Amino acid sequence: MMGIKTMRDLLESGVPLEKIHAAWTRASVRHERARRGGGVCRICGGRILRGEEVVVSDEDELVILYSAFWGLSVRAHFRCYEKLRRAGISSIEAVQEGAPSVQQLSPPANAQKIQSIRTGG
After folding, report:
1. Is residue 2 part of a domain?
2. DSSP readout, 56-117?
3. pLDDT tens-digit profile of 5-36?
């Protein structure tokens, strides 16, 4: 079973940074406190704990981008969302701790290498 997709997964699968950044900045979001823990931040991939500030969006563009189930919301830490909005696409890797850099993901050779690892060939 595949886990919940995060921004890192999208980057590794070849989704352009511009598309991810644009989807988050255009999306209508609600700012709230997490009522229960256990969710996953779609930006950094970290756990969302009970009581943390989060942003929640039901926007179709984000739901489709992250392959979320229809009717479910896409959630992220408020701090990650703010960093992403402020950082812009030039320094987006600063939002994710431990995420591969843009230069590591952008060459086509890396995309082929990732695909060959996934397919076992």
Report:
1. no
2. EE--HHHHHHTTPPTTPPEEEEHHHHHHHHHH-GGGGGGTSTTPPPHHHHSSHHHHHHHHHH
3. 999 999 999 999 889 999 999 999 999 999 98
